[in-house]
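Duplicate of #3305? Posting structure anyway:
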């Protein structure tokens, strides 16, 4: 009578247990949201901009902005950069990009030669050369507004913003939700309801053609 030997695939069991514990990928959830029928994604190379009828998409996107048909647009500078006209606001927007802090001062000078005012959102590359950008703006007599209070301290004219700590804490809270497996579509866009106005007094005095209302200065954080 022969004996039988039974072998259990313990490796397969271990893999199965690990798979059961896996959490959804935040990146995969983001891609899922980007492929929804009501979303047009122009970021992250999905699809590559070089494969798109760029001018047609740019016109359609600008029309959606103009007619208030778009709630949120996330995309590339290539789609929206050249002389964007916001008919509802009566503004023409000219954009510039930099890849290093050495390019910031030159880009600021070029923008000041084309625009009545300059705005930059919080950006670490621009922040590293904020002093040079501020000098270029003051030399041209053009107000530079920013979304970063640290740039105001470096010479930008003014900002209405929250502190980096406040933004960082909220960003971390949202990241934790995604890491814990919450679907990205269920994490709402957050907008800070309160902000602080920051004004650089030295820059304001240098721009003799511009002034702020007294009530703004009374409630603003004014730095030199």
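Output from current build:
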């Amino acid at each position: 009578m022969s004996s039988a030997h039974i072998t259990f695939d313990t490796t397969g069991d271990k893999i199965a247990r690990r798979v059961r514990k896996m959490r959804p990928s935040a990146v995969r959830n983001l891609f899922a949201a980007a492929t929804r029928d009501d979303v047009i994604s122009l970021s992250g190379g999905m699809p590559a901009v070089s494969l798109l009828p760029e001018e047609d998409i740019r016109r359609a996107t600008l029309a959606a902005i103009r007619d208030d048909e778009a709630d949120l647009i996330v995309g590339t500078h290539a789609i929206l950069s050249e002389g964007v006209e916001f008919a509802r606001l009566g503004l023409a927007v000219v954009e510039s990009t930099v890849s290093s802090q050495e390019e910031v001062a030159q880009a600021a000078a070029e923008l000041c030669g084309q625009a009545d005012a300059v705005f930059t959102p919080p950006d670490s590359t621009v922040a590293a050369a904020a002093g040079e950008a501020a000098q270029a703006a003051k030399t041209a007599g053009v107000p530079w507004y920013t979304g970063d209070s640290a740039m105001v301290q470096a010479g930008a004219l003014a900002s209405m913003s929250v502190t980096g700590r406040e933004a960082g804490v909220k960003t971390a809270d949202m990241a934790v939700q995604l890491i814990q497996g919450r679907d990205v579509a269920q994490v709402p866009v957050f907008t800070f309801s309160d902000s602080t106005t920051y004004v650089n007094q030295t820059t304001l005095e240098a721009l003799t053609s511009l002034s702020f209302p007294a009530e703004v200065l009374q409630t603003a954080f004014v730095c030199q």
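Confirmed duplicate; merging threads. The radius of gyration is 25 Å. The mean pLDDT is 79.
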